[in-house]
Amino acid sequence: MIQIFLLSKSHGPSNGKHSNRSLVVGDAGRLRFNLNSANGCLHFSNRYQAVWYSTPINYPDHPDRFDRQPQILCDSVWIGNFSRRYFEFELFKNQRSDHICVGITHSDIERKGISLSSVLGRYNQSWCLDLHLTPRDTFLIFENGVESDVPSVSYNRIGMFLDNRSLSFYSVTDTMTLIHKFTNINTQTAYPAFRMGAGTALRLCQLC
User: Which helix (H) or strand (E) holds 24?
Assistant: First the structure.
């Protein structure tokens, strides 16, 4: 499964390539899905801590819900001076897995339809890392709707660190290796967000 941790205190990974993961895991806080935003392809278990992609089901209509895109948001986080948040996830996939995209977005992302303004990464107020899992692991990053390649690295876990107005992605083992860093995130309120493909799953891990 994918495990996610949220760092809520005032220290975390450095801006360098490597950092000691043990310095941040002890400060994990709580993170919750916004269930009203969940697309019908996303299924839940474990008291709504685990989610995976499967056959569509009918959820009640809601203005926050993605009706066509297989996406879900979490509760908002504030971005600004002295604001730090750290998330970490561990990927589950099978031989037919498609891709999973993780990042942050502004709340104005479109919830209805299939336009680019409804797609995490393609929407011009979102920043994310897209892991294409087949036929081989390929990493793409999206900033304000613009796609770029980044070198793929060996990983079991991916960390996502918000530090003031920057957003960094790390490959996580006992140390943390920087994959990519966005600077000058131009929103004060962001929503951690996931776009899931076939054969992928994630589980929120609450450590406190």
Answer: helix 22-25
Tokens 């993170």, residue located: 31
Q: Which two tokens stand for residue 79?
A: 């971005």
Can you say how many angstroms the Cα of residue 196 is from the centroid of all Cα atoms in its chain?
A: 10
User: CA angle 137-73-19, nearest 5°?
Assistant: 55
In sequence order, the 6+-apart residues with CB closer than 8 A to the CB of 47 are none
pTM (predicted TM-score): 0.85
Phi, psi of 194 (to 5 degrees): -135, 135
**Contact predicate 129/102, CB 8 Å:** yes
Can you tell me the distance from the alpha carbon of 1 to that of 204, in angstroms, rounded to the nearest whole number?
9
Contact call for residues 107 and 64 (beta carbons, < 8 A):
no
The contacts of residue 61 (CB under 8 Å, 6+ apart) are none
- Please, are residues 99 and 133 in contact by the beta-carbon 8 Å criterion? yes
Residue 139 has pLDDT above 50, yes or no: yes
- For 55-121, the DSSP string reads S---PPP-TT--SSS-EEEB--EE-STT-EEEEEEE-EE-TT--EEEEEEE-TTS--SSSSGGGSTT
Read off the pLDDT of residues 164-205 as tens digits, 9 standing for 90 and up.
788 888 887 777 888 888 987 887 788 889 999 988 888 776
Mapped onto helix, strand or coil, the DSSP state of residue 196 is strand
* CA–CA distance, 72 with 88 (Å, rounded to integer): 17
